[in-house]
Amino acid sequence: MLRHLPEQTDPNLLVGAATADDAGVYRIGRSRALVQTVDFFTPIVDDAYAYGQIAAANSLSDCYAMGARPITAMNIMGVPTDKVPPEVIAQILRGGADKVKEAGCALVGGHTIKNPEPIYGLSVTGIVNPKRALTNAKARTGDLLVLTKPLGTGIVTTAIKRGLAPEALETTVIGIMASLNTAGPELAEKGLVRAATDVTGFGLLGHLASMCRASQVGAEIDVAALPLLSEQIWELIQADCVPGGTRANLKTAESLLDANETTDAQKLLLADAQTSGGLLLCVRAARLDAVREVLHRHATPAAAAAVIGRIVRSKEPRITLR
Ligand code: CO
Ligand code: CO
Known about the structure:
With 322 residues, the chain is of the alpha+beta class. Helices cover 34% and strands 24% of the residues.
């Protein structure tokens, strides 16, 4: 669909829609660029405050994934005003505002319309030194792949909707989705990471494939090293708590995969559509300890900032599972 848009020729547009990156980057000075992004979605949990927090954390994440510091944000909201009481709307907005505040970002306004389904999110503007911006196009052969949040939010939130998720797991997944990917800008400013993206709706496979395509490389994933929200994920997959988006992601990725002995359940986890997922970082081996130190300081949720694989030489964006 984006192919039908006019081609962008502005020389200050450093990252546009062409490389399927997390945000647009527009130069406004020698060492300054604006990073702009917008995201919103329908409620994924019942708790209105948590929904607001998660939607805001997810919107801010695209800015962090570019290595930018978010400076301003605006609310985007649609509500069925005949069905949702004003207190609930206020809770959603408060959840979002609290995350924006936690990010040290100014909430400068917003826009709400009446809509048959609730939607909420933010448009976010950040600042980055264009020389330090983290795109998905600079992954190089030999880079280690580091993932900063555990996988499985699509499966678990589907289980919550069907009343199949234990309460403790629900609490865990909400906490992880609401946590901010604040490490991105520090990693970028210190030059510790070569390329980055965040893992969201297209799942780990989809976002890794975009990175491989943009960087003209391939990747290998150590399936046993993937951080999981919980071992209960396997039972939930078995109980068919798999969102439609996850199945669609797997279908799209299948032609790029060398799946070896990987089971169908593992492939579904790899393709699982994440909400407000972690950063996927390409790290030179010599920088791994320094990257882990930064991630640790930013309270990264994935156990020990998991190394899940590596970038390999390949003309095609192939992904090998081991
Ligand atoms: Co993104
Ligand atoms: Co997005």
